[in-house]
Amino acid sequence: KQEVTQIPAALSVPEGENLVLNCSFTDSAIYNLQWFRQDPGKGLTSLLLIQSSQREQTSGRLNASLDKSSGRSTLYIAASQPGDSATYLCAVRLRVPGTALIFGKGTTLSVSS
Amino acid sequence: GAVVSQHPSRVICKSGTSVKIECRSLDFQATTMFWYRQFPKQSLMLMATSNEGSKATYEQGVEKDKFLINHASLTLSTLTVTSAHPEDSSFYICSARQASGGATETQYFGPGTRLLVL
Fold first, then answer.
1. Hey, are the CB atoms on A100 and B46 less than 8 Å from each other?
2. Looking at the partner chain, which of A49, A98, A103 has a beta carbon nearest the beta carbon of B106?
3. I want to staple A61 with a disulfide (CB 3.0 to 4.6 A). Which of A76, A78, B20, B112 is the partner?
4. Alpha carbons A91 and A100: distance in angstroms, whole number
5. What is the tens place of the pLDDT at every residue in B44-96?
6. Minimal CA separation from A2 to chain B, in Å
């Protein structure tokens, strides 16, 4: 059974720091991996999606990498800002058509000004 | 990008009543919709997979008679929490998979519905 783990569970940093969020999954037979942002009491905002054949994706200050063989992904946030404060969720989709995403518990990030 | 809406965004009800939550794909057809539940400080847990025109597939531990799912059209799925109890209080989120699919197939998430059962 696929399990997704995110470390750390919570992270507090001062504004301007670069930081890395970690995600690991137990079954490397994934279709893709996606990083989401969730603000308190809100839905999900998709940040980056990495197909299984890709190594990384970049969007602005965000960079996500994928090492499928080792079952790991990282989300790198450069020059963090208070507006980055949120919970970041990692999710994988298995290599079965039409299946749902399997989520980690998330990392709650707090960036202080 | 594709938009998925949910209604209502927030509902408070008395114990024993039934609550219906709607999930709509606004600008695409969704053959498959997924219903997730998220308890405080927990991750999203899949409750059921809903395919248009057929019965939903429920995850282990989810009572199909309590959580009724109807996917009557390619743009609408509903989740009805029957005889709701305080332990059903949670954040319910739906996602829709675009019918065309393909190599970059993506699921689009609704904004969620906060249910509080008193």
1. yes
2. A49
3. A78
4. 10
5. 999 999 988 888 999 999 999 999 999 888 899 999 999 999 999 999 999 99
6. 13
For residue A17, give both structure tokens. 């720091």
Q: Which two tokens stand for residue A26?
A: 């137990």
DSSP string across B50-73: EETTS--EEPTT--TTTEEEEEEE
Which of B45, B97, B110 lies closest to A43 in CB terms? B110
pLDDT in tens, chain A (113 residues): 889 999 999 999 999 999 999 999 999 989 899 999 999 888 899 999 999 999 999 999 999 999 999 999 999 999 999 999 999 999 998 877 667 899 999 999 999 99
Residue B106 and residue A97: Cβ atoms within 8 Å?
A: no
**Cα dist from A44 to A36, B1, B14, B36, B112, whole Å:** 6, 14, 28, 12, 8
